[in-house]
Structure formats: structure tokens, C-alpha cells
């Protein structure tokens, strides 16, 4: 998949982390869309003109948490194959199991290593081809 045709939906309420993620991804040539809370995420999912190739999703979001956002994504048939990487400071086994059971493909703990995160993104995008 050509990076410039690849849209990544970033759902992150921390403005600083959101901007870092957008910067990292756009430097790799990906297109990005940022949703800053759970309500914006729900709207982006429900009103998408284009399916993203991947979703980076924080767990702790205002209004609708990341676990519920994963369920919203997985409840939509057209989104069922979109990889979801949870990105969060919550790192207990219970949180990881809950995220994976909700439908997340992977779980990255903050603070994340940028190159590791990008490698995981590339891996899921390769699987989409």
C-alpha cells in the first residue's frame, strides 16, 4: 500500500501526544485524521467518507473511552478488517486483555518508542495489502 494513499485515524485526547503521532506518521508519508475525544471518534467512524487503513486509539478518552470506541468500530461491518492499535498508559494485564477482547489488534504502552510504533503500523498496513 502506497503511503500517500494510506489514511490513519488517530484518536488521542492529549494534544501533545496527538501532534507527535501526526508528525511521525505524516513524515512517513501517511495521511492522518485526528479525533481528540470519544465523541469526535464516534463521529469520525459514523461519518467516514473513506475507511482508514489503520486506527491508533488511546484508551482513556473523554466522553467515550477507547474500549467502547473499539466496540463501535467492530460493530460496523465495513470497519471489521481495519486494524486497531491501542495506545495507552494503562498497562495492567486486565487492561490489555480487555482491549484485545474488545477487538483491538495490538496494544502499545505509553511512553512508546517511536520506531517500534512505526514498525507495528507498517506491519499492520502490510497485512492489509
Automatic annotation (TrEMBL):
Keyword match Thylakoid: no
Keywords annotated in UniProt: DNA-binding, Phosphoprotein, Two-component regulatory system
Superkingdom to which the source organism belongs: Bacteria
GO BP annotation list: regulation of DNA-templated transcription
CC per GO annotation: cytosol; protein-DNA complex
Pfam families: Response_reg (PF00072)
Domain spans labelled Response regulatory: 7-125
InterPro entries: CheY-like_superfamily (IPR011006), Sig_transdc_resp-reg_receiver (IPR001789), WalR-like (IPR039420)
GO molecular function: phosphorelay response regulator activity; transcription cis-regulatory region binding
4-aspartylphosphate carried by residues: 58
Protein name, as recorded: DNA-binding response OmpR family regulator
Lineage of the organism: Bacteria, Pseudomonadati, Pseudomonadota, Betaproteobacteria, Burkholderiales
